What does this fold into?
Amino acid sequence: MTEFSHAVTLWLPKLGDTLKSQPREELSSLKLPALQVLLAKADAFGAVADDFYSRGCYLFHQQQTLPVASTMAATQITDSGKDFWIRAEPVQMIADRDSLVMMPPETLSITAAESEALFEAFNRHFKVDGLQLEWGSHQDWYCRLPQIIDLTTTPLIDAIYQNVNSLYPKGSAARYWHQLINETQMLFHTHPVNEARRLNGQPEINSLWFWGEGQYDHSQVILRKEVTLWSDDLYLKGLAKRTQALTQNAVKNSQAWLTLAAQQSSDQHLIHLDDFSNKTMAVSGIEGLKQLEVEWFSPLLEQLQLQQIHSLLLDFGGTQRYHLTPKHLKRFWHFRKALNRHL
It folds into this structure.
């Protein structure tokens, strides 16, 4: 093992789905030699099908999934403390006969000025009720409550593009929060921000979706001071803060990571790549896979061979993950297979 050897987890949560979405014939003929060697030589382990937040906590060696809103708020609001937190997500609701279908925030291109105007309008309107939004950024709003409430919400990812009639909050506090959503829709509908959007042919920001509820409990957190997280994801950065891990921004490629990692005090690394949807990947599909081969899989294979990495865990989402050490590469009887045979 070299002096600067690392244990690395490379997590691409959407890569498994990307591979499965490719035409089988095209995937069977696709040549990604480094990835194919890594998969062929690795020990494959079953993984429980779970969501992004549960998988992130698992990879951070947590026994429980930390609540989404309070974990995100930890990175943006200095006194997030032990209060009960809920995300308040600006969205668009589209009427479709007798249902409402929710469009995700990223389709709205909300400007900072629009966000501030709607945020302030909400707080003015609901001040008499004692309910106020808290500002994380123009894309991140929160509700802070001084005590736990009986409320179970639907995660944003499970509600987008869906009829939300059956997805509203549940629990003894549900009626209030359902009414709050309805009143917010009326408030936002007549707001000048949406009047201007209608004139300009832009989608309206006409509702809020409350989700991610929970309270931070430090007694349930396992500290990970020896780990460096490489990610731009807000939840993962909050998770790193809660577990006292080090945090670095996402890196473009493996060589950039290795250069920066040599400057870190830790030798354990969780590298999160948001696959084909952020700055780490400029393209998608087959071309995106080829880019990953050049920028990540081939260099990681070389770093394993040089023992600059002594442990590599690959997690592509789905129900399998793969582990390798330099010794695994000596398995000459493990032949490289077509990618479709690993699905």
Q: What stands out?
A: The two ends are 32 Å apart (CA to CA).
